[in-house]
Amino acid sequence: MLDVVDMVTAYDVVVAGGGPAGAATALRLAGSGFSVALLERSRFDRPRVGETLAPSIQPLLQGLGVWERFVALGPLPSWGTRSIWSSTAPAAHSHLETGYGSGWHVDRRLFDRMLCDAAAAAGTSVSLGTSLIDCRYDGRWQLTCSNGHRLTARVLIDATGRSATIGRSLGARRIAFDRLVGITAQWSGVDVSAEQYLLIESVPDGWWYTAPLPGHVMVGMLMTDADICRHHNLAASAPWRNHLESTTATALRVDSATCLPTTPRVYSAASHRLVRPGDIRPWLAVGDAALAVDPISGSGVPRALRTAEAAATTAARLLTHPADAIPLTTYESTRNTECTTYLSTRADYYAIALPHPTPFWTRRQLTAAS
Ligand SMILES: Cc1cc2nc3c(=O)[nH]c(=O)nc-3n(C[C@H](O)[C@H](O)[C@H](O)COP(=O)(O)OP(=O)(O)OC[C@H]3O[C@@H](n4cnc5c(N)ncnc54)[C@H](O)[C@@H]3O)c2cc1C
């Protein structure tokens, strides 16, 4: 299905973004016989966040046919979650009750790279270190990559994550629901053998998340709002470490670290929904680009893989029945329903907590009430 015309390479589908959502969408479409190109801006050589995978990831990886590749990465089993949320005593939730036995703590560079490798093995043309920088539609997508290559596609997939760069450049509107950020650093040389669980601890400015990673590493992350981060300069090493010292259980987890944490990095963790009223051009947003959720839900990566399945089915239908706009409408309305359900679940999470009369918690109380 692939032809080369005047140095422009033609594909059925071009996917921009090689995170879990983009790689899984490409893998499914290539596996169904379509010609697919996957463009990924990075080379998976920098740390990536989202390291704790819920037990529900197992059937999704099995459905993609990548379970053996996943196990070969040597992920750490995650036995459950402990949360210091609305009282000082940790509440424990075991993954043994889920039917899958455990969740997983992974190095996201390796995990995301593994999914891209699987997409390539299924026949996807994968370009790392390559961004999609321009797209126009004239009955076919005319696409320009950062390396100067030009591609055409019948269907375009925006899998660029929270930035939703492609969809927004096409005129879709991002509705933001909060200003959450994650300020994260890692410690190496930590004995994590007795620490294979996710710990969440609420503090006046937000909440801390700590989780072990393969290779005797612990990752720590302060989740707060962007304005609070700026006001207290929490992205700088010393204030971030002082803040950690104010916790009860979180700081104890990294007591055995043989070195200081890495310099903190700030990631947007804001929830948003990308809406595209009335646009029937053949493009779809998938994963965080379509709907980005609060990491408190622990559902980011499983959700990305689930929407990839829906996006692949919709894209396949657009390719085989180009005059039929119903699949696009159905896809968007399912994402809207997903968004409504998510907002109600998020309100429930924060309603359990509310332990501090501070802006971070008061904002969430107001959101839950509205
Ligand atoms: C602080 C934080 C903590 C989190 N913790 C968890 C967790 O513990 N568990 C969990 O399940 N989820 C967690 N998440 C959410 C999870 O990381 C995301 O839901 C998941 O990565 C979404 O996958 P995605 O493929 O949609 O987007 P991403 O993983 O963001 O991938 C998007 C990709 O697109 C690429 N890209 C961007 N623009 C372009 C372009 N123009 N051209 C080509 N490529 C481009 C980027 O380089 C990136 O690789 C967390 C998120 C944050 C912010």
TrEMBL record:
Question: Which InterPro entries does its entry note?
Answer: FAD-bd, FAD/NAD-bd_sf, Flavin-dep_Halogenase_NPB
Q: Which organism is it from?
A: Kribbella pratensis
Q: Which residues form the FAD-binding domain?
A: 11-336
Q: Which family does it belong to?
A: Belongs to the flavin-dependent halogenase family. Bacterial tryptophan halogenase subfamily.
Query: What protein is this chain from?
Result: Flavin-dependent dehydrogenase
Taxonomic lineage from the root: Bacteria, Bacillati, Actinomycetota, Actinomycetes, Propionibacteriales
SUPFAM superfamilies with a match to the protein in the record: FAD/NAD(P)-binding domain (SSF51905)
Bilayer-crossing residues are none
Signal peptide per UniProt: none
User: Out of the domains of life, which is the source?
Assistant: Bacteria
